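Hi Y.,

Following your request, here is the sequence exactly as I used it, all 114 residues.
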Amino acid sequence: MPRAASVCLVGGCPRRTVRSGRCVEHAPAEQSWARKSARNLTRDSAWERRIRPRALVRDGFACVLCGARGSLEVDHIIPISKGGTWTLDNAQTLCKPCHWQKTLGERRQGATGS
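Below is the corresponding structure, written out as tokens. Let me know if you'd prefer a different format.
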């Protein structure tokens, strides 16, 4: 059984809905899941293709803290949330355990307000 037609959610508009509770005139131009934030676009393009591989090569495919060669990740020295940049000079190679310890330390500092 088909659903009953509903009226546009925009106040005062008597038209029938077509998408997301709005009529053709008031419907969003694109789906929200199709949009990407500027942060993700920056990461996808520059970080993954250029910065991350260069950091791994520069650091000799080893963790800069303990020298481990397995489970490597490229980390922001200064987190983006704290004003860090998406550049090579703000990247370092860390193994997963060292990256986790660094992240925990940053969270603790944030919690204490330092």
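The domain at 36-112 is CATH 1.10.30 (DNA Binding (I), subunit A).

Thanks again,
Q.
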